[in-house]
TrEMBL record:
The chain crosses the membrane at residues 9-33. Keywords: Membrane, Transmembrane, Transmembrane helix. This is DUF2771 domain-containing protein. Pfam families: DUF2771 (PF10969). It comes from Gordonia liuliyuniae.
Length: 197
């Protein structure tokens, strides 16, 4: 049986625990409310019966500020975040980009394996024109992978701006998707000429 003094100590202890619980809850609420890091835009990939979401290798604002996880201009090697989405031979792969990518020009680069070697196909999409692209993996051209590049407004090494013969436009973000069919081996790794659509 509790003595009157024990009841006072227990009441104080219960009150102290309640204060700590309220303080932890308040701190958690403040941390959640003040976390202003928006999620990175993802690309949706439908390969066969599977739907996967690919996060970018890196992502920056359109003017190449606020880069996450790293500014590609400041690292020795670009970060790569490969999303696996195996595409069976004979299947179609659909790649849908979010509005953050489609708001500006963007590129899709698909790599294929043939009996003669491998080649890449470059597709450039103007702003707000295309949100979803279709890629087919055929026996004579097996889809190995897809990269999506989102264009920034920043030129690098271009002393005369857009009129420069030198320089390049930086990519604000890139996505890497591995679509090699399960168990497939490349029959010939000779690099063939790139193609443009």
């Amino acid at each position: 049986m509790l003595q009157p003094g024990d009841k006072k100590v227990l009441a104080k202890l219960t009150a102290a625990v309640a204060v700590v619980v309220v303080a932890i809850a308040a701190l958690t609420t403040v941390l959640v409310v003040t976390d202003n890091s928006d999620p990175l835009p993802t690309v949706s990939v439908q390969a066969g019966d599977d739907l996967v979401r690919a996060e970018p290798d890196y992502w920056c604002e359109i003017d190449m500020t606020d880069c996450r996880p790293a500014d590609p201009r400041r690292v020795q090697q670009l970060p790569v975040n490969v999303q696996r989405a195996p595409a069976p031979i004979g299947s179609t792969v659909l790649v849908s980009v979010p509005h953050e990518v489609a708001d500006g020009p963007w590129m899709a680069i698909a790599q294929y394996a043939t009996p003669r070697g491998t080649y890449r196909v470059f597709d450039v999409e103007p702003s707000e024109s295309t949100f979803t692209k279709k890629f087919v993996s055929r026996p004579d051209a097996v889809l190995l992978g897809i990269q999506v590049w989102s264009v920034s407004t920043v030129l690098q090494d271009a002393p005369d701006g857009m009129d420069s013969l030198d320089g390049s436009i930086l990519m604000r973000g890139t996505y890497t998707i591995d679509t090699v069919p399960d168990g497939f081996t490349i029959p010939n790794s000779t690099e063939l000429a790139d193609r443009r659509n």
